[in-house]
Design brief:
The structure is a homotetramer of 314-residue chains.
Chain A lengths: L18 H11 L2 H18 L3 E7 L9 H9 L5 E4 L1 H11 L5 E2 L6 H6 L2 E4 L2 E4 L1 H15 L3 H4 L4 H10 L7 H7 L4 E2 L7 H12 L6 H14 L2 E7 L2 H10 L6 E8 L13 H6 L3 E11 L2 H18 L1
Helix pairs in contact in A: 1-2, 1-14, 2-14, 3-9, 6-10, 8-9
Amino acid sequence: MVKSFKYVKHMRLKSGMSVGDLAKEMSATGVLGAGKIGEASRLVTEMFSDPDYTVFLTLSGALVPAGFRHIIHDLITDEYVNVLVTTGANTVHDMVEALGYRHIIGSFQAEDRRLRNENIGRIGDVFIEQKAFQALEKWLYKTVEAIPEEKRRRISGAELLSEIGKRIKDKDSILAAAAEKNVPVICPAFVDSIAGFQMWMFGQDKTLRLDPFLDTKTILDKVYDAKRVGIIILGGGVPKHFALFANTFREGVDAAVQITMDRPEPGGLSGASLEEAISWGKVKPKGNAVTVICDATIAFPLIVAAALENLRKK
Amino acid sequence: MVKSFKYVKHMRLKSGMSVGDLAKEMSATGVLGAGKIGEASRLVTEMFSDPDYTVFLTLSGALVPAGFRHIIHDLITDEYVNVLVTTGANTVHDMVEALGYRHIIGSFQAEDRRLRNENIGRIGDVFIEQKAFQALEKWLYKTVEAIPEEKRRRISGAELLSEIGKRIKDKDSILAAAAEKNVPVICPAFVDSIAGFQMWMFGQDKTLRLDPFLDTKTILDKVYDAKRVGIIILGGGVPKHFALFANTFREGVDAAVQITMDRPEPGGLSGASLEEAISWGKVKPKGNAVTVICDATIAFPLIVAAALENLRKK
Amino acid sequence: MVKSFKYVKHMRLKSGMSVGDLAKEMSATGVLGAGKIGEASRLVTEMFSDPDYTVFLTLSGALVPAGFRHIIHDLITDEYVNVLVTTGANTVHDMVEALGYRHIIGSFQAEDRRLRNENIGRIGDVFIEQKAFQALEKWLYKTVEAIPEEKRRRISGAELLSEIGKRIKDKDSILAAAAEKNVPVICPAFVDSIAGFQMWMFGQDKTLRLDPFLDTKTILDKVYDAKRVGIIILGGGVPKHFALFANTFREGVDAAVQITMDRPEPGGLSGASLEEAISWGKVKPKGNAVTVICDATIAFPLIVAAALENLRKK
Amino acid sequence: MVKSFKYVKHMRLKSGMSVGDLAKEMSATGVLGAGKIGEASRLVTEMFSDPDYTVFLTLSGALVPAGFRHIIHDLITDEYVNVLVTTGANTVHDMVEALGYRHIIGSFQAEDRRLRNENIGRIGDVFIEQKAFQALEKWLYKTVEAIPEEKRRRISGAELLSEIGKRIKDKDSILAAAAEKNVPVICPAFVDSIAGFQMWMFGQDKTLRLDPFLDTKTILDKVYDAKRVGIIILGGGVPKHFALFANTFREGVDAAVQITMDRPEPGGLSGASLEEAISWGKVKPKGNAVTVICDATIAFPLIVAAALENLRKK
């Protein structure tokens, strides 16, 4: 079974070491979480450096509220990420910041009844003022109204988000960057977001018909066009499933990195292993895949910074 | 702070005791997981017994594959559950069983490459043959074709599932029961399911345009009509968020039971506490809410069986 | 790979059903958490009914504070459990209750600075007054003083706890029941408990020398004498490891049930799978073993009540 | 409640950035996991730079097998850590490496029955050959025999480990470094380790009487002598409890960093929050404390490397 052994190499830490060096030390252990960080850094470097790769990034969880806006923006602008599949919420929080509202450092121990009275919504230990969403509603109304009615008769979530992105002035916006770089922002459950409910209200007055099957087409086009597919999955949910299932149409992705705190045991897709994904044809039998059981706000910046450093050295 | 103490009562187990008796013993501890089971049983009993309650049940995770089909079916048929909000997958697996395919007892340690070769998909330790989905595709094509084209020009996910439900002959089917009892099956991310992809293909040939905003309307109608709202959340994901956010339109639900293995720390909505939901107006400040950190396949049958027993005794 | 399939049977719930019936329904699913509850019930029934089994029960976590006192007491008194391996804390909380102090239903959201001022210690959502430990100290001083000095010159944790147990008058006490039934209460890290620190203080004045190797001998005697070994592991920690490692001296246990919320990924022993235990000779290669990923306060009462019902039917 | 807001600052990643820079970016978010890493880095920097601090490091879980040997060794040698409280296993794996045996990069999916046949033990995805423990047994026998018998009549775990450490030639050994630097290695459950069982066997032939209360004294001496106490808790278990409870004798630690994947909900001490620790007087009411919910093999190297960089800049 174990013919020639490969040994765990102990990490050595140095003051001032680069993130790439740290990832290399972790990689050399080859085991447990640190080893997975090493393997994930290697795979992400491969996805980012090989032009044959179409890279899907899926987002679930409060990543924009958590401080991921620049990271995702830069990955799109620098053309490392080619398709974004996300919850509606992450687009909402990008828009809200584009309007000048900020996420607030709060606390898990906050008194929620009091926050309610003060019109503050809580996301873990992040706070956001409700007035941000009121401003969003007004802005979104005008912005979507400015999209030609013809287009609004049948529009995909991705087109709608692209049209919105084109009209965002904030240069740090993820949606703006995606619109500029023609990176589709696919949001299969866009209706399930604050903006989704606001768009429903818009649709009471004005023309707006979302056609979610157009999003299916958009993602499948990307799948069919790809020479190789790499996927980075942050959290699970609909974005994970939609992106992986779309890739069954090409016999699976070639490389996959999943960062999640969910586990397989309760049976949900969010915690499903990438091994399981092989059985469905979502990941190629010979594909490389690694799951990092870690808070994405810790693991993802570490992995990306290491990959960027590796790229420079290539 | 603690003026008059309420004490932990130690559980006493007896051979042959009923599930309701066990839940009562758990309830009397008042603490940790057992205490939460007790509190959840009490809340579910209240939701099920008070006719003023409109009860929302949200499903995420592999509940139908896990053996929940009769439980959900019966809760609908017996009119305890009034609105179902679900992932597409649970509807797919209900349909597949209605066609005579069965879920197979598998293993977490299965070799996924081999399963792939044998055309078996794995969900945790549940297996399912891919041919079930091929049969589904054929059946779904004919079934949806039988829906008048006029209707197919603009249809909500809930209507589509209701039309499908009407055409299912299996008396154990959740969709069939829901159609019969006029319980809307709301699936905000229906496109993100095997049936969703199959319906996209159908739409290449035939008329089919989903309008997801109609689902928004459907859930909001239920929210506006309700005197009181109770919600039971199994897992998290889009179903949890969509159902809770819809209830902000009436200042929040009155009673909520959440069963999940997700936790608040990583910041995702799936693991968000029901306290946090108060800050958003999803749960009323005076609402009763309990989160049970447990595998839903263990906790939910226990809680429901206890509630059913309590109902009989009322 | 999968030649003859065994199918998932959907659970059917009935008002008034017994816990054994519920466990049977869960068992018939064969998958995920419910399936594991079924398998665990079967294994515990086997351990409890076959007189060849020596049954080890290991306790970590706040089980006595959580309301497990009667359950553990009764399993000892009814001779289902033959060896108890535990953290010191569970013995401390048993003693404190024997002195008439009670655990209080508290809250996870308590203000801990205020509790500190009010001399209340918090364990999750359980409170306990510090005066209970002051009373314990006095009582323990006198009680241990009453043990003949000769014995105190070299005593194992198990003997010390047995001597203490003999002097407890409360008929609900776990230690008293264990002393009466000659069930050793093995506590390899007894010094790491409030009573352990109190015994250290006792040892400043009076003779008391613990010899932890005597506990090694005690557990190994049980291991060597056993025809078959069954082990039930609640939580992980030192009790899990000590009991499992001792059983490597007989090539492993025959049957094992582990209930824990810990997972294998971070590499700690507490979350280690029972499969891993096979590699160490802790579980026999042909042994039956099941891990239930669940809060023990929920799963254990359910499993035990089901097993007791099964026993009656045998 | 929220008068003047502090805002989440989005992370900016740069190729070649140092670990300290990454930690600073994480710190500036102020929220979720990344924010906790930032706070933990700040606290560890404080502990390591202020000479008034006595720093306790507690180890649970497979840290030495996971590649932590150099990190812990260096923290001792560079005098950042003053007291080590550990499971026996981490000392065993340090000794085994000192004897020239290495930990092997294995797999979570290994076939454990086969590993058993090949005399390989598995710890998560780390393998170790059983012959390492046979060699340990021989070496330990001779090594402990070389300790003067007088000392062996009554010896603490810490003294025993110090005597062993003095006799280790490998300059990378944690035990050797600790012996040289007079850092006590406190192991309250030493009997619960492979070496503990081997020492029990030694004690069948030769004189060896462990007195665990001497470990209590050793840790309390450190507690009483400290001007300020900082504690870094990796994993939970007996090491966490013993170190924290000892600090109740000085009204609690001043600063605490806990890295764990365990959570409070099931009620065990391993997952208990550091807030809860305030109620017991383990952490000072005004103490600074942060819990990072993360795999320690990822978070700890990141935090330590950042702290070392901060120290240099001071």
